[in-house]
Design goal:
Chain lengths: ~550, ~350
Amino acid sequence: MTPTRSRHGRRGILLIAGLTAGALALTGCTPEAESPTSAPEWELTAQTDAPSGDIDSFSWVSYGEPYSLDYAYAFDYADNQVLANVCESLLRLNPDYTLTPGLAESFENPTPTTWVYTIRDGVTFHDGTPLTAADVVASMSRHIDPAVGSSWFSVYQNVASIEQTGDREVTVTTTIPDTQFNQGMGGSAGVIESAATLAEKGADYGNSTGLVNCTGPFELTEWQSGESITLTRYDDYWDDSLKAKSGEVRFVFMGDATARVNALKSGDVDGGWMLPVDGIAQLQETSGEVSFGLSTAASNLIVSNLEGPLGDVRVRQALLMALDRDGILEAAAKGYGEVSNALTTESVWGGASDATRDAAFSDLEEYPYDVEAARKLVEEAGATGEKVVIATAPIGNDFTVISQATVAAAQSIGLEAEIKTVTPNAYTALFSDPSAREGVDLFYTVWYLSSPDPLEMYGVLRTGEFSNYGGWSDPEFDAIANEAVGIQDAEARAQKSSELQHIANEQLPWLPLFTGPTTVYQGERITGVAPSIAYLYFPWAATIGAR
Amino acid sequence: MAPGNATAQPSTVAVAAQAAASTGRAGGRFTAAGLRRVAGKLGGLLLTLFLASLLVFFSRFLVPGDPVRFLLRGRKPSEEAIAQVTAQFGLDLPPWQQYLNWVAGALHGDFGRSLQYRQDVSTVIGERLPVTLVLVVMAGLGIAIVGLTAGIVAALNRGKVLDRATLIGLTVLSAIPSFVGSIVLISVFAVQLGWFPTFGSGEGFVDTVYHLVLPSTALAIVFVVLVGKVTRTSMVEQLGREHVEVATSRGLKRGTVIRRHVFRNSLGPILTVSGVLVAGLLVASTIVEAAFGLAGIGSLLVQSVDRLDFPVVQAIVMLVVTAFVVVNAIIDILEPVIDPRSAAGDAAR
């Protein structure tokens, strides 16, 4: 069953899926290998072996079917891993999480509130028509049209106007200096579609009937609802360095983790992202290849109620100290990952100097596992005997492990604790509907970033932000974050983000648990993928060819 | 079958009834009583469908959660977007008006638009219906062949080892949940032996049938016991009847007696059970479809419930209810044709 996942906030994404999918026990397959007593060995790979040549076609499995391939609604693993190969954005988010020019050959920020994009010449849509500035204006304007109800509205929340200001020039004016707008142009928020296609397809644009017409290395040729999506190489693609090495990519959907692992093991499907953690060992025994790559996702517990015992920072700190995070990482993620004390991963700090990045992750409070000290903190805070409620849903093994571990941890330090189990869609509602969060103190999330900027994460924790679920408010934090949003220099901005990271680490509006790599499998027929969570926006399938 | 097309159903049933009537030698002739009976059945059928439509539509309002908020999937909406999108899907109207719109549309085969796919519900369902139909038909054939055979074999050998072995075998099979059966079948026949694909429904008819061998087997396993046991019980009862003994004593061949007297008279209960089976198969198909990654109605239903996609849920539930009610109405009408005694009241001589 495909669980719901959601993501939220000002460009933050919550990942439920991968894990979900990965979490079901693989019964009935080969006998479980003895569970390793030590963490498995894995290392990050930036790029798998280059292909020996082109391949006619390969297939790829996803945990779920896209809701929609309309870029305005695509903001989930299922949608974006397909769309990334078909539609391109003004900027390109590369596998190393850097932003480089995309459909905009250059951009300028002449005043703090204007972004000027020069549109690349010689680019054609899949129907052969040339890309123009008018297409850019039409595509971007949909995000601020309430009738569209774009999922990416938050990127555009400070946009005052989007205008064509020259033959190949588009200017976006914002109400306040907003560096984050441009950082979002490497994702779905920056996708450009033909204005004529948008007008022609209307309400069916992006569904399995209307399809899409973009500029990427692959063209969306067929979508059999519930069954498969087929992409075909676009021969007139503008960027020679990313010309597709496969004539065709066929996506199939399998909600069941066991089914996915079986299909990969038997060679029925050539590859897939987000491997079920229980299946990784089995897949490593095949003639294919499991790779681990850059991720921007962090697993956290969101504190959604500061009116209760968790309103006292000492109780939040105590709860984190009472969580055996090494044990949780082992049980929930089979050890693929690392315990983290920050809400971001180093991979989104590309704009910072090494010194700044190191500073951001050094001197963080580590909250070592210490139940005794934690219990004393709770006593100090006078919260002993008070109750916390942890919401969870039958979405995956990680949800079960983490909710139970949290209850046990809370009880071990003198709090009362109970689990509130809701349906997957009710769980999704926690992220968008304040009434759904009533009576819930904590819930689990895996939050990934869609732009190479830690401010995407910390901006969410400002007072009054949509995804600041606990209503946490720290005037000093707000002041630094608001200032940072307007700082154009990436290094100077990263220094501010480092300050924010340290405040969040001390105040714990969310409790950081662990981070884990992006996983990908390539069967014996194929190679060439860059293992990175950038697969959500970068045309990753173009580099895959024959092994 | 045209889902929700109320005008089509009576005709379907009437045709079936006529066909039945013209073949039936004993009952179901065009007598006033017979026609009244059929009309009564049809009235009941329409009433059932109407009540079901009320239940199916208004139960939506008992489910917590705003489908439009769900559509935003946790993203920060713009101020006016929620209102606009709500209006687009007609969710701003009072419930009774939404119901009338829905019924009016449904009578034309228009079930509105799917929220998750942003597409016409009829398109979404139409693309997935064939897989489920083929799956259910294949499973149904398997159940009929295996179940009837097992039941007949057991009945003819009642009390002997073969009878017990058959019963035990059926019971063991029925204890295997569809989901477990699916996993075992995949791991043995698809992964280890490689005889069948692990997932999907293939392209074209032959390939589809090939892809659906394992899923339909997994689906059939649970229900074989039902048909097998009912067949056995029913046959055993008939075998003990006087007229069978009379027929045998008159020197009629055993095969003829069993075919004409025993089996034919046993069909009533078997058909009744088959009607229940249709609903059971449709429900169980959700599990099997998920395990085999089939894009059928079952997996669509589960997913749509999960995603608060009410238009799709309502359409599928109405479809299943309609199928169930119509099949059972047909069986009711056919019963006297097959078994004259049920029309003539209790005529056990």
